[in-house]
Specification:
single chain, alpha/beta, Ubiquitin-like (UB roll), 3 domains, five-stranded mixed beta sheet, 26% helix, binds zinc ion
Amino acid sequence: MIINFLGNLKELLRPQFRGLESIEYELSRAASVKDIVEALGVPHTEVGRLTVDGLEISFATLGGKNDRLDVYPLCPPVDVLTPTMLRPEPLVAITFAVDVNVGKLATLLRMAGFDTFYQNYISDPELLEVAVREKRILLSKDKDLLKRKEVVFGHLVREIYPEKQFAEIVHLFGLKKQFQPLSRCLRCNGILRPVGKRQIIEQLEPLTKKYYDSFRQCQGCRNVYWPGSHRDKMLLVLNRYGDYQDLA
Ligand SMILES: [Zn+2]
């Protein structure tokens, strides 16, 4: 069969296939198009659309000897809440599970208010299990992890620097207008709620006690947040990529 990879999928191909206009692939046994595409190097999570002779097909379709298969990349903004031929069961909400190889991205997503699962020390099978069970978009730099068939929604993070990775995700999933800054705990992903100063005064350092009056507390780990230089720095980053109402 003849396979044609489009757009940014070309750079994910195994080195021997890069730079080719199209790939002649010899089918030695019955294989799904998902397996064929991945054998050439591209995780299925990066594919937005598959067609044979212009007709849209699913991942499970078997490759045919005389087929001409076109493999399209994801086209931003990717709407994970609407069914598609490749992903007929959409997600109910945009939430993430972040691999340790892009850990700093998790903090930035939480900063912007996105529900983000992240654990420092976690094995691949455990991370996969959480992403599948909680229906989260798996973000990783590990191609093999993203090739696992249990993964439905995921993304191979291409950028190297965390802030650029964050911009990559915001652009890909069209999240610009969905920021809810300072609504989530950076440590544990818990929800932050306003809390009276009196209730948490024991936890405050003397200077914080003196200069600040407005506080939020994590409903999970009880960590307390207040305005200050750290918060201003965070908002600078978020302002660069998001489009949200100014915070009081
Ligand atoms: Zn917390």
